[in-house]
Amino acid sequence: MFNDVLIIADTFMEPPSEVLPLRTVTMIAHCNLGMSILIQSTQEMKDFVYRFAKLRGLMDYIDYILCERERERERDVRIDVVRFYPNTIVVKWIRIENQLTLLGRIKSLAGK
Question: What CATH number did the domain enclosing 12 receive?
Fold first, then answer.
């Protein structure tokens, strides 16, 4: 079974996460693994997240910004700071030090 959706929590859009590794993770997941990339945010923060991401080139591989609870499918691969769903990769940040490990875990959970 393949999981074609990667949902990333909006907390990774700001420090201590780094923009280039986040862009690399979204690019490889989108282009190489064929996944749709979604950012999960609150309704109040949706516009801020879009502007922040757009200025840094992060929206190139992001398909949509979700509001909380808008998509609660348990089979999607998620990156978050807490585990609410199965198939969640729990990390504190996305940085150059953990991007390769993160990509390997995404590939494994996506079944690709």
Answer: 3.40.50.1000
pLDDT tens column, 31-55: 999 999 999 999 899 999 999 999 9
* Structural domain total, the chain: 1
Measured CA distances, 58 to 27, 45, 70, 85, 98 (Å) = 9, 16, 21, 25, 18
Kindly give, in sequence order, each residue whose CB lies less than 8 Å from that of residue 70, ignoring residues fewer than 6 positions away. Answer: 40
Residue 8: phi and psi, rounded to 5, are -115, 130
Could you list the residue range(s) of the whole structural domain that residue 58 is in?
Answer: 5-110
Model pLDDT for residues 96-105, shown as the tens digit of each residue = 999 999 999 9
Distance CA 30, CA 7 (A): 12
Residue whose entry in the numeric block shows the structure tokens 């999607």: 76
